[in-house]
Design a protein that fits this description.
By secondary structure, the protein is an alpha/beta fold. Helices cover 34% and strands 17% of the residues. α11 packs parallel to α14, α18 runs antiparallel to α19 and α31 crosses α32. The longest helix has 23 residues. It starts with a helix and ends in a 7-residue tail after the last helix.
Amino acid sequence: MSQEKAAQIVVIGASEHNLKNVSLKIPRDTLTVFTGVSGSGKSSLAFDTIFKEGQRRFVESLSAYARQFLGQSDKPKVEHIEGLSPTISVDQKTVNRNPRSTVGTITEIYDHYRLLFARLGKPHCPECGTRITSQTPEQITDYAYVDALNEQCLILAPMVRERKGEYRKELEEWAAEGYVRARIDGEVRRLDEEIRLARYEKHTIELVLDRLTITPKEKSRFTEGIEKALILGNGLAILNYAKKSTEPDVENQLEQSQQKDHLFSQLMACPSCQIALPEMEPRLFSFNAPQGACPTCNGIGHTSTFTEEKLCDPELSISEGSINCFSEKGNLLYTKIDQRHVTSLLKNFEINEKTLWKNLSVKQRQLILYGNTKMKLGVSNIFRFPGQFLKKLEKQQWAGFIPILQFVYRFVKGPLEKFQHTAVCPDCAGMRLNKMALAVTLHGHNINSLSGESIESSVSFFENLNLTETEKKIGRDIFREIRDRLNFLNDVGVGYLTLERSAATLSGGEGQRIRLASQLGSGLQGVLYVLDEPSIGLHQSDNKKLIRTLRKLRDRGNTVLVVEHDEETIVSADHLVDIGPVAGQDGGHITAQGSLKNIIEVPESITGQFLSGEEKISIPETRRLPSRKTITGANLNNLNNINCDIPLGIFVAVAGVSGSGKSSLIDGILNKALICHLNPNSKEVPGPHKKLSGLENVDRVIKINQAPIGRTPRSNPATYTKVLDPIRDLFSMMPEAKARGYKKGRFSFNVKGGRCEDCQGAGLKTIEMQFLSDVQIPCDTCRGRRFNTETLQIFYKNRTIHDVLEMTVKEAENFFSALPKISLILQSLLEVGLGYVKLGQPSTTLSGGEAQRVKLASELRKTATGNTFYILDEPTTGLHFKDIRLLLACLNRLVDQGNTVLVIEHNLDVLKVADHLIELGPGGGKYGGELVCVGTPEELSAQETLTGKFLKTVLEKGAREKRSFKVPKCQSFKDSELQNLKNTKSEEVEENTAHFESLKESTNHSRDIIIKGASKNNLRNIDVRIPNNKMTVITGVSGSGKTSLAFDTIFAEGQARYLESLSTYARRFLGRMDKAPVDSIDGLSPAIAINQKATGRNPRSTVATTTEIYDYLRLLFARIGKAHCPTTGKPLIGYSPTRAAAYCVEHYSGQRLELLAPLYLPGSWKILMLDHPKHLPNVIDSLEQEGFVRIYINGKAIRLDEWQEKSAKLKLSKNTSVDLGIDRLHIDAEEQKRLAEAIENAFQRGHGLLKICLTDQDGKTEFLSETPANVESDMKLSFFQQEELSPRMFSFNSHVGACPTCDGLGEFQRVHDPLCEDCGGQRLKAEYRAVTINDKNISQFCQLTIPEARREIESWALSGNQRTVAEQALGEILTRLKFLENVGLDYLTLDQKSSTLSGGEAQRIRLASQIGSGLVGVMYILDEPTIGLHPRDTDRLIRTLKQLRDRGNSVILVEHDLDTIRQADHLIDMGPGAGHHGGNVSACGSPLEISAKNETLTAQYLSGKKMIPIPENCRPMNPEHLLSIFGAAANNLKNLDLSFPLGTFTVVTGVSGSGKSSLVVDVLQRVLEKELNGKKVKPGVHKKVSGIDQLESVMVINQEAIGRTPRSNPATYSKVLEPIRDLFASMPEAKQRGFAKRRFSFNAKEGRCPTCDGQGFHLIEMHFLSDVWVKCDQCKGRRYNRETLSVKYKGYTIADVLEMEISKAVEVFVAQPRIKRILKTMEEVGLGYMKLGQAGNTLSGGEAQRLKLSAELARRSRGSTLYIFDEPTTGLHIDDVARLLKVLHRLVDEGHSVLVIEHNLEVIKTADWLIDLGPEGGDKGGQIVFEGTPEKCIQHPVSYTGKFLESCFQDPARTTA
């Protein structure tokens, strides 16, 4: 795709819902508004087509595991979309009504708060408030030495604390263990004296462990004493400091002193109260988790209890029903406890049933409600056997009504809530959390008090925090996220909200802005945002903020598509698309598009007519005069005790900014109060208010909303308005219907009788396509007409019932004009502008506005009472100007009938026509809730309130227009006009070119990616700029930080931000997406990684499954595959009763048939009524009672009433056939209905099998099956399909489809004849192998190569229905096949196993899938894509990457290949060195600029200043020292015979897939490992290998990590730490202290730091943020305890040695030969910069490889070894390759052999011997192209390697050694 095309989104052939094959172009990086009348197809285009496809394509790039949790992402009905970016929708999601949901939880700020408090909060004791800390022995020692240096001290271990007992045995044991003294109840006593303690008094006993003066000399002794005390005291120790004294008896004074006790705890517990703190995890601060929630209210913050006030009416007696919770039947709600129990209760406790409740004594009321005994309540005695209560009552035992209701409430919540009183939780005071969570503070706040601050205040709090260095390090990412999110919320105008505010109390506008703020906060660019009417619920003042927000999104480089009717938003758009011209089936065309001027100029555009003023909504000439209703003291939510008059009998509108309290006043108080007044039994509870007067003037209250009129396609306007009832009555009165006895029910498609049973009245069959859009095809039997043939033979005016349902309302009104009962209903639909809607149109396809008008039509046709109160909350939602005009006409008609209409609305067109306005405000939240102004629109505009200012402009404009309120007739479009539109507008893809060009110039908002403060792994807080939409290469020496920047920072952040836009549910399963440790990243796009994922070794994985082609094939074979009998090969056929009847009429017309239901068939495995004929007598009676007459035994008829007489002579065996006679009839077309009914009965009795017996042809029989089957006369050959075909049946990974013999593998692990004998390698069960398309089953199809598969699909001849079903899946398969061909994989077969693919092939398959997605605006990050690629394939790869870039994507590569680097647009060179010497940006710019500066290693190689020299001479090949392979035939190898010269440096090369790994790894390596190392492996197919006796060993060296944990490091891996520890253990200080070698291991308890367990750092898990490593406070990162670090060698401790670079260590240990030899080898392989203690899991692949090599080189020689390397240059910089080659040649010089699989020309050119395989990949490879020296390879005509190698030998400078 060119850059020009990437600047626009091109949609071709969109036909979702009512879209008429729409094609259009949308400029990218603009604010585009879709508008048009309601139901015209705006959402179908924006959401159901563009959004769905964009998100589907991005989600496909995620892992298969993740995708299964993201919901079924259907592919929309569209031919093609180009230029799509990943899409994010901000739709009209309603506010969450979950009581647990708050502003903090929906914005995820509370999640970050929880993490913040868990990691940085300071815990305190919830009882005494003491700060709780955990202290190590060293920390306690340090504290004491600061606090009490040179003071005398007792070290005490608390053994008993305030417990009763004599403790005689314990005291004796302590004395026996050698302890001398104990402090008992504050007095120090010797344990050898007699101690008697009072048994029943509490005692405190502490052992005295040591008595000493705290001096520096005693520090070790003091620490050991503390350690002992903590062990004995279970984590507690007491230090008793005594002041120095001049008195002579110092010792005695010390023992008796009770001053200055200091209690220390090693546990996270209060030492005084002994309250242990639970683990400080985020869930401790969650009121939705049991760990954090208040146990009393379960985290809700309030409790609901049954109370006397709610349950009882004080003015009634019990006999009059004072207890309200009884039903009309007299039982306690939902229980079997009834009046008998009440009577018994009153009788047994002598309570008068006539006494008023208020006059009963308190004791009596308590008894009735709470009972006098605790009874076990359960399902049995409450719901089933209430007599148990009567027996208890006789014994004067009663459980109480409230305990019983509390039990019932566990099962039935809703209806019982009205009897409960809700109060703030007494334990947590509404704070929702338990005491432990609330006792953790952060800078003076606990989490609840911080959540209680407004967003504005919270912004200030976090900006002014003074943090310690540790807090800054741990909290850096958390604080950044919190500040960003708070600022964005503040920016969109909801700064007044608090985070603890319940989400249920938010207005629609507030909810919308919160969701929009979260998208702003992601900071993404290149994204396509699709918004559904974001102005809904927003006041005009808020609307300006919204438009600013949308523009800000656009200016970041995003495309913003908005479905909108708001005039201000439309005018603010860069580009407009008007869809119409009308709604429903006649809509779905592009009426106009372009600028505002373009829209106005198109006469067909209704939007243009309203925008130009040609059409308008007029202001009424007069306002109606009101009567009054008053609300006094309204206090719900943020209402501030307001008094408000609401007039009756007129059109009233309530206005005000979002969150001002409109819904609280009208919905929360007025609506609920009216409902309660009109229905006293209602459970609705009005919000708090003092009184409401004038209720007596209302007799009905109706709330009209936009909820669907039905949830299923069976509901439609005809059923909702009940017009279908008189229509059905009419059809049932037709003479033909009467003659046939058809009742009204016959003409309903929802019940049996008249409907088509094949589709059950739906008219369509839905074919489930799983991950594609479901396909609907017309029912074959009724052809979409929903009714059966007989019903459709009844006509009224030559129209059937189906024809009537297909009529539009307008057509139907003309058709039924003579029938007032029908036409009146249809007229009401016509009057509300729904003349275009079909009577039978499924209600699920109606828009919100259309559903609203259907409801209004139902109201308008009702007889007016004049006292109805209509409430509409934002009724203009989703309505176009034209629809609003129609709506206002309907509402005014209701008012003209004397009713009251009250609307909550922001739309100025509605407000200006209202009779009376009520404005609330002045602000939102705590700044709202006041009555600002009331009166007519003119009065409000005169007051210049916030709403009045906007109204004033509208009224002044209206004053200039003619004052009229006439509703123009609905504009109709003739068929010819619609056809003209279809031919011109919908097919018009070339729009106003000038408009597009100007937009391109003005809206180029894409920004560069700017990274600040990246510090992942070894990155040094770097700042980087990466140009957008360019190909950028990040290079540098191995371990310099390339992957840390590209993947761990840029990719991690880009994908995390996009995934945050997905549902919370989906994100739970996507793995933990860590945020990157970075200060900020600006200009990010959604990121997709294509990394070096190893080829799957799963034997089940194939090319088809990896590319998902097999998934689509499974779907195709399940939906359009032709099933056959696996035994006979005949097709399987199934019949419905109707189709079976038609078959009989077609084949047996005029003949006499007997229809039988088989009850038992000999030899058949089909399950029938009888499992053996001998059971027939058991069912004879029931069959006779059901009216059946005959049974057939082996074809002979026996009457059922004669069974008793004839059965004695019968022998019923397994060979006896038993059939039930259903009917005998002469076949005639007129008898088809009777025939179908008889067949249906036969299928029912015969378990889906019908036996037809031709009485005219000597009993000839034929079987028909309801399910697909092949029924033969020989039942053993018959086959019945058990269930409908599904994709799982064609999966060899599912037990449903897999061959049971080989478990779906197709073969066995055996040398001879590995193919499965059952499935022949096809992997599936026989019945699924018998399903074919075009005579091939799915396994045979997969045996084709890519081009063959494409041609096969193109040759398929499909029927119309098959083509409809298969269209989407075929498109997906062909697209994938095409891209596989494009990346050069046309030689692969679809069933080739993934485990046999080369690395290059696997890489290109993944890349092909990304090119296939066609996304734009994405950031692709690739990890060394040239790995495994031959130079020939690298050229192809670079072309592919440039194709991605030219589409409008940013492509970032981590790469070392010089040719790829030279092709980059931008180069970032990391370095200057590796490890801690790297992590900086050494240079950045274009490759030419960097090579010209010549400052970095990369630059020097690019410019040619440095290069890898070619050896002067190749080592000669010795014919006597060869390793020879004969008959190598593994995978694609063509029976090769070849030799590898020993004692040389040999390279095996060839194009990707040519067979290199098959030869070296699968054959040679495995043979050698088996023979020399005794390894149990199975070598690839070969005849023999000779020359093995010349080798002592084989060594395979790869790049796998040397360890998976931070404890593994170069010192441990190379085993140099062993002699170093020996050395330290031999030091005099170590010998003196008795330290053994083990003491100097950080993995052993003796020497390591106990706080960090020898790690030196603490890992702070940050959940959804990047984990943080913090240096241990105790050992300061040195890993060892203080005593161990006192031992030194040459002034260095063991910790200092581990921190040394290897080069420095060589100098330090120069006098230690054993140590020096190992260190020197590591230095020689280029690892001198590395620290000895560097964590093994932080080493790059190249570093790990060189470390392994050094370990080999350091070993003593053990004979001739063959070293095998598989692509050792992976991840290596060109300079690292030079080092590696030196080491490899050194190995050869020492007498070893080196064999390398490699594509890198720098390695190939230095080889002694070269083996080139090919000439191509796959089946066209596996041959030897060349054997010999690299120089000779250049001259070979067929070798691709030779062609590319030629350039290396042309430059004379390169040939110098």
